[in-house]
Specification:
Blueprint (H helix, E strand, L loop, with lengths): L1 H10 L3 H9 L6 H8 L3 H13 L3 E4 L15 E4 L5 E8 L2 E7 L5 E7 L7 H19 L3 E8 L3 E2 L4 E2 L13 H11 L6 E5 H12 L7 E7 L4 E7 L2 E2 L30 H4 L2 H7 L10 H11 L3 H25 L3 E5 L1 H8 L1 H11 L1 H5 L4 E3 L5 H16 L1 H5 L2
Parallel strand pairs: 3-6, 6-9, 10-13, 13-14
Antiparallel strand pairs: 1-2, 3-4, 4-5, 7-8, 10-11, 11-12
Protein name: Sugar kinase of the NBD/HSP70 family, may contain an N-terminal HTH domain
Family: Belongs to the ROK (NagC/XylR) family.
Organism: Streptomyces marincola
Amino acid sequence: MTHTRTRLDRGRNALGPALELVHTGRAPTRAVLTTELGVTRATAGAVAGELQTLGLITVDSRPSASPGSHGRPSHRLAIADDGPVALAAQVHVDGFRAALVGLGGRIAATAPACVTVDADPAHAIGEVVAAGAALLRDSGRRCVGAGLAVPSAVAEPEGTALNPLHLAWPVGAPVREIFNRCLAEAGLDVPGFCGNDINLTALAEHRHGSGQGAAHLLCVATGHRGVGGALVLDGRLHTGSAGLALEVGHLTVDPQGRPCHCGSRGCLDVETDPLALIEAAHRSPDPAGSLLDQATHLLRTDRTPEVRAAVATVIDRLGLGLAGLVNILNPDRIILGGLHRGLLEADPARLRAVVEERSLWGRSGSVPILPCTLDHTSLVGAAELAWQPVLDDPLAALTR
């Protein structure tokens, strides 16, 4: 017993890195964990055992051998199916959604709702927190924290929504403060974190989706309205000096184009979002429905020449914007979400050709452009904010 404790003491600082390896799917076995951590097999075993004791992972000491394999198979490591969860919340122009998200980005339950998001951010945030609290009561699972995704840059360190352009919220709304107050009022004694929805999409995709392994990952995506972007450098979100970096929606792609909320004209935000596609196809949006759903339905089901021409036009605009970003940022991978994912899937050759023709880096070597692969990416990313303290120090976070 003394030897085990000694090994665990030596590996205590490895608990967080070990959990992150399992969380991101990079350590499916104890043998891989040993190699990745650079510790002895005994120390890796002690670390895995402690994470299992904390209820975070499971350790299968007698896994079945693969056909044709030789020797004793290594202990298999997996996320605990009944382990703790994070409460994830998202507010967007068409309403909100709450979810419970476990390690590995696994969504355990969701509660969608479409409501009118009025000028008081406390109303929508209170509603989504209440929905999440109900999910927690029904699940009976422990909550490690809560994360909120909003369609606005979130200024740091204040936690304020600086530019909620597509909501009627006041500029500078203290969304983090409101979120934590609503959590307390719902009886949830957990820390609350907030972030921009596209930033959180990028974080989720980097850890669990099509961005895995990228060192310089650029994410561009449409929300229900508007366009956002994010950059993940060496595993960390690049948020700038105050949390406001990568407002790519306000990159001009047509100087004579539509007026933008930012005061300019022809920005990606108004030239490549769901409303832009609907209007380019000469369709009238249904004010009672989700613009993102309407544009996605149009893209997937309408094959008329008018719609095909509109799709080509919006793809070209998006390609111009991506080419400019490639010239500035030199990413090693681009991932597209929301309606942009659908545009890529509709005509990948056209989009990639525009980017390659208009960017220096594109001409010297193709930049991979991939679709986001996760469902509810902003929710998974919001949960990542809540899970981060646990990933940093599991023992301290779960025994407080």
